[in-house]
Amino acid sequence: MLPKIAKNRGNQKMYDSNSHKILAKYQKGMPFEQQKSQRYDLSKGEVSLPCATLNLNSVKHNINWMQEFANFHNILLAPHGKTSLTPEIIQLQVEEGAWGITVANVQQAYVAKMAGAKRIIIANQVIGKSNFKLAA
Hints:
This protein is of the alpha+beta class. The chain has helices at 56-72, 87-96, 106-114, 129-135; strands spanning 5-9, 12-15, 101-103, 120-122.
């Protein structure tokens, strides 16, 4: 299912910023053509470079380890979502038991909310009418 198109400016389409599945062609780290499987091979040149890759098992292990550490020490964990700003990783952290997610600004808070975070800490000052409206 394609994300909702927010605006269409000539040949350039702007997609909902909360969907990381479909972005403009040739955007860094994104494939030229979408595949139903959502699996791409860097060695075959199917993804533009540079592109960071993650080992999902390692990510899950690290999230689990940190949550177990926090639980053992009776700490409420609110990992900083800005590190990855990846909705799927934020969702894994919340599902694993994170008390909340910490972000740098209102726009990142919106991504965290869409990823399922119920408690969000904005680590910087929120200033300006547009930020207040976004935060409301």
